Amino acid sequence: MSTCGFRVGTNLWRLRSALPRLLLGLGLLVGLQGPPCAAFYLPGLAPVNFCEADRETAACKSSIALFVNRLDSVESVLPYEYNTFDFCQDSEKKSPSENLGQVLFGEQITSSPYQFSFNKTETCVKVCVKSYDIANEDQMKKLAFLKKGIELSYQHHWIIDNMPVIWCRDMEDGQKYCTPGFPIGCFITEGGLSKDACVINSEFNKNNSFYLFNHVDITLTYHRESERNGGIARLVTARLDPKSYNRSDENHITCDGPPMEIPGEYTDKLNITYTYSVKFEENKRVKWASRWDYILESMPHTNIQWFSIMNSFFIVLFLSGMVATVILRTLYRDIIRYNQMTSSEEAQDEFGWKLVHGDVFRPPRYGMLLSVFLGQGIQVLIMTFITLFLACLGFLSASKRGALMTCAIVLWVLLGTPAGYVSAKMYKTFKGVNWNTNFLLTALLCPGIVVIDLFTMNIILWVEGSSAAISFGTLISILAVWFGISVPLTFFGAYFGSKKKFGSPVHINQIPRHVPLQTFSTKALFGIILGGILPFGCIFIQLFFILNSIWSHQIYFMFGFLFLVFIILLITCSEATVLLCYFHLCAEGSHLETQHPKFLLGASHISTLCLATTKIPDFQKDYHWWWRAFFTSSFTAVYFFMYAIYYFFTKLQITGMASTVLYFGYTMIMVLIFFLFTGTIGFFSCFWFVTKIYSVVKVD
Known about the structure:
- A 6-stranded mixed beta sheet has the order 3-15-12-13-7-8.
- The chain is elongated, with a radius of gyration of 32 Å.
- α6 crosses α7 (403-414) and α8 packs across α10.
- The chain has helices at 3-33, 100-105, 137-151, 302-339, 344-348, 367-393, 403-414, 416-429, 435-464, 472-497, 524-531, 533-537, 540-551, 559-586, 597-602, 607-611, 626-634, 636-650, 657-695; strands at residues 63-68, 110-117, 122-132, 155-156, 158-160, 163-164, 166-170, 176-179, 182-183, 185-188, 209-212, 215-224, 233-243, 261-263, 270-282.
- 47% of the residues lie in helices and 13% in strands.
C-alpha cells in the first residue's frame, strides 16, 4: 500500500470517527432553533396522557373509550363481528382505520357503549337491556345465536388504550391462568358436564342451562408521571372479571344475586341487563414503556417451555458443528488425494465424487418447474427474513395489530424482481428456451395456488356469515396489486436474469451416463426423508407457540427468539442438504482400491462411502442431485404438515366441517410457503457446495 493511499484511508477513518459528533452538533443546532414539538416513541405507539375531569387540558384527557374486536372460539375457526351478536352497541359506531393485515385476518374493531372517566370509580352502571319474547321470531333467532356462541365458547376481545383487556382466574393447581379475552358465558350439558368457565362458580350447576356473563368488573392500573408534568397518568394494565347476575328489577340494579340463567328450552319472556363496574389503581413500579409485560401472564405455557427451547438450541448447535467438521475434514482429504494423482493411469482410475464430474452439472429433468420453485422460494425467503428482523427490532410489535401481515404482503409484492431474476437465471443455466412460459409460471403459479385456496375458503366464510370473509372490493384490490405491481416487477427481474447463467467449473459430457435402478438405501426418497428431520427438530417447539397464537388466540411476543430459530433453521437446512448431497455423490465411485490403509483407518465413517476397500456396484452411479437437493430440505414442510394434523387432533377442540376445512386450508398455505423457502435454502447450499468442490480439483 502506498503512503498516499494510507493517508487517504487514515483521513477517511478520522472523518468516520468524527461523523457522529458532527451529526449530534447539527441535531442540537436544529433542535434549538426550531419550534418545540412533542416527542414520539419508536417502535410502538405514542402514549396517551390521562388526568381527572377537572384537570383536563389539551395535553391530557379524562375520557377512556373501550373498543371491541371480533369474537372467536377455540372450537370454531369462524370469527364473528361484535355486532353480529345481540350485545349493547354504540349508536355512533366509530371504527379506527384498519390496515391490510387486519382486513385479511378479519379483525373488526369498533366502538362500544362502555365509557369511563379517568380515576372515577363506578359501580353497577347500566349499559342497556335486551329483551327476548317467544312471540317475536327475530328476537328468538338472536337468542338462539347467542346460546350457540355460548355453547361453542366464543370469547370477547376488548381493547382499552390499545391494550387487550385480559381475564385472569385461579386454577385448581394454584396457578393463575390469564387470557386476552373472556367468554360470553358458559354451558352445562344435559349430562351435567361443566364447560370451560362454568367451573368458576358453584351456582352454575343446572343441567342443559346457559349462563350469560352480563356484568364485568374492570380494573385499570395507571402510572402517575412526575408532578412537574401536571400529574398526568398513563394506563399500564387493563383487567376484568366477568360476572353473571339476574336482575328482576331494572330500576334498582345491584351487583349480587343469582346468576343469569337461560334454560336450554326457554318458553317465557326474557330480559337481560348488561352492567359494568370500574375502578382505578395506581402502580408506581410499572411504567408505560413496560406495560405490555403483563401480557406475558396470558401465555400459560411460557415458563415451562424455556428449558426445552434452550435444550433444542444447544442440540442444534452441536449437530451443526459436528456436520460442518466432518464434511470439512473429509473433503480436505478427498481434494488432496485427487490432486496428488500425477500419472495418466491414476487419472483414468477416478473414484468417489470426481467420477461423475462430466455429468454432475447436466441440466435436470423438469428444469422449468425447478427454476420457478427457486424463484418463488427466494421471494418468500427474503420476505420472511426482513419481516422477522423488523419484528425482532419491535417495529411489528403486538401493539400494531395487523402490521406483521401487512409488512409481509408488501414485501412479497415488492420482491417480484429477485424472484424473476433467480428463476430466469437458473432456467438459462438449465439451457431452457421457453422464456415466456418461465416468466408466467414464476409470476402466477405459486401465488395463483394461494389465491385459489384463499378464494375457496372465503366462499365458506361468506356462507357462514363470518367477519373474516374478505369483501369483493378487497379481493379486487389484492388482484390489482398482484397484476399491477408484482407481475411487472417479476418480468423486470426475469429480463435481466435471462442475460447471464450460473457458471459451471467443469465441462459436461456429450453422452449422459446411464443410471440403472437404485437400491432402497440409495434412492432419493430415503435421503429426503432423513434430510427433513434435523431442521424440523429445531423448530417444532417454536411451532407449537406459533400455532397457539393462530388457533388458540394467544398473543405471540417471542419474535427475538423466533428470528434466532429462523437463522438456525437456515443453517441446519444448508448443512443437512450438503451432507446428504455429499453422501449421494460419494456413492458414485466404482473403482476404489486398497492403496491407503493408514488413511482409511484415520478417516471418519463418512470417508468409507468414498474410500471403501471394496468396489461399489454399478447401479449406484446416480448423478441427479438437483431435485434431490431441493426436496431434502423442503421435506421439512411434510413434517410441518404432520405436526399440524397432530396439533389439530390433540390440542384443539374444533368441531364442524366448515372449521375443519378452514383449518387445513390455511395450513396448506403455510406448508406451501415453508416448502418453497426451505427447499430453496437447501438447493442453493448444495449448488454452491458442488460448484466449489469441482472447481478445486484437476479434471482432464
